[in-house]
C-alpha cells in the first residue's frame, strides 16, 4: 500500500539459544572445577534476570529473553557422565536443534582461566561430552573453560572434584564471569 512504512520484522539473534552448563548436581560438588559450566550458567542467569528455575525432564531450566528472543539456560540434574540424556531432552522440550546449542564445560587441556569456543569435534576423554556425543552427535558448539592439569601425580578425577577455596576459587569466579560475558556476546553476535 503506497505511503505506508513497511513494518520491520525483528531479526533473530544469530547465536545459540539453548545454553547448557555441565556439572554435577548437589551441594557436595559446588565450587569444584568440574562444575565450571554450572558456575558460568549461574552468572549468566543473574545477569539476564533468571530468578525462577523449573525442573524440566532431567534438567533445571531457566527461561529469559534477550533482544526479543527466547534464551533457555540449562543445568542437567544427572551426573556429568550422563549429561547426554538431559541435553537431548532439553533440545526436544524447547524445539531446539543442535545448531541452537552451546555447551559450557571444564577443560583440563587449557591453562587455568583460558576460554575457547569450539564448533564440533571430539570429546577428548571428557565424560560429559562423550555422553552428549552419544545422545546428539558431535556437531554442537562449546565453550571450553580452562582449569589446567593436576599438579604432580594427582589423579585427574580428584583434581576436578576438589573443593576450591581462597585464591583458586576467586580465579574460577573471575573466569566464570568472563565466560558469561563471552557467552552473551556469542548469543548476540554469533560464535
Q: What's the SSE blueprint?
A:
Layout: E1 18-21, H1 36-48, E2 54-56, E3 59-66, E4 69-76, H2 84-93, E5 101-107, E6 115-119, H3 127-136, E7 141-146, H4 156-161, H5 166-189
| Rg over alpha carbons | 17 Å
- The CATH topology name reads Rossmann fold
Which bin fits the share of residues in helices? 25-40%
- Overall strand count: 7
Strand order of the largest sheet: 2-3-4-1-5-7-6
- % residues in beta strands: 15-25%
CATH class: Alpha Beta
Task: Specify the structural class.
Answer: alpha/beta
**How does the major sheet shape up?**
7 strands, mixed
What is the H/E order? EHEEEHEEHEHH
C-alpha end-to-end distance: 39 Å
Number of domains: 1
- In DSSP terms (H or I, runs of 4 or more residues), the helix count works out at 5
As residue ranges, the low-confidence spans are: 1-7
CATH-scheme architecture: 3-Layer(aba) Sandwich
What is the structure about, briefly put?
The chain has helices at 36-48, 84-93, 127-136, 156-161, 166-189; strands at residues 18-21, 54-56, 59-66, 69-76, 101-107, 115-119, 141-146. With 191 residues, it is of the alpha/beta class.
What do these coordinates show?
The chain is an alpha/beta fold and 191 residues long. The chain has one domain (18-189): Rossmann fold (3-Layer(aba) Sandwich), CATH 3.40.50.1470. Helices cover 33% and strands 21% of the residues. It contains five helices and seven strands. It has a seven-stranded mixed β-sheet, with helices on both faces. A hairpin with a 2-residue loop joins strand 3 (59-66) and strand 4. Helix 1 crosses helix 5 (166-189) and helix 2 crosses helix 3. Mean pLDDT is 91; it is low at 1-7.
